Amino acid sequence: MGLFTRRSQNVNVQDAAVATLEVDPALAALTGDYVIDPAHSSIGFTVRHAMVTNVRGSFAEHEGTLHLDGADPARSTASIDVKIASVDTGIADRDGHLRSGDFFDAETFPLMTFRSTEARQLGGDTYRITGELTIKDVTRPLSIDLEFNGSATDPYGNQRVGFEGSADILRSDWGLTWNAALETGGVVVSDKVKLTFDISAIKQA
User: Fold this and answer.
1) How many whole angstroms separate alpha carbon 49 and alpha carbon 204?
2) Do 140 and 164 contact (CB within 8 A), yes or no?
3) Is the separation of the CB atoms in 43 and 197 below 8 Å?
4) Most buried pick, 17, 48, 49, 176, via CB within 10 A?
5) 131 phi, psi to nearest 5 deg
6) For residue 185, what is the DSSP state?
7) CA atoms within 13 A on the CB side of 55
8) Dihedrals phi, psi of 178, to nearest 5 degrees
């Protein structure tokens, strides 16, 4: 069940078919402003290490807001701030290296941010949010494909919506170029990084 459904009808026999927007009332009721619940959300990444395995990590501290528009998905927006110093791969020395000037330089650039500029439905429960991702002092466009997981009222009376999705980036596009060569060929850290998002957001009164 998607947030939005589209049906078409003919205006007359001479005119081309015109798509009109028809909204399920239950889904239209989701329209509003939401705050991301960091306790039940995760923002993570996966990167190839030494050409043979994947290292996974996440950012423990983040906050953000969503605006969902049940009548016009193009008016939906998203804003996320991620605290770089909260990076966690399960290895303290590696996390320290990621915070250093070789990578994120968390002391100088404490936040990674995303600000949406466009939203559209790809079909069914799948949506694409396009915006600007800023890491360090570099801002570049990013598109995130998201699946709408549904809505629910939690035991405390909060109305929640859930989304999950991912996006592939080249870290070098944001100036994250540190690497080391392997004796067997290749490099220690791949340029390609997969970002993952699992979001639970609470509707505001």
Assistant:
1) 41
2) no
3) yes
4) 176
5) -165, -160
6) S
7) 19
8) -60, 140
Phi and psi at residue 37, to the nearest 5° = -95, 100
Contact status, residue 75 vs residue 28, Cβ threshold 8 Å: no
pTM over 0.70: yes
Amino acid at 54: N
Tokens of 50: 């030494």
Per this entry, what is the length of the chain?
205
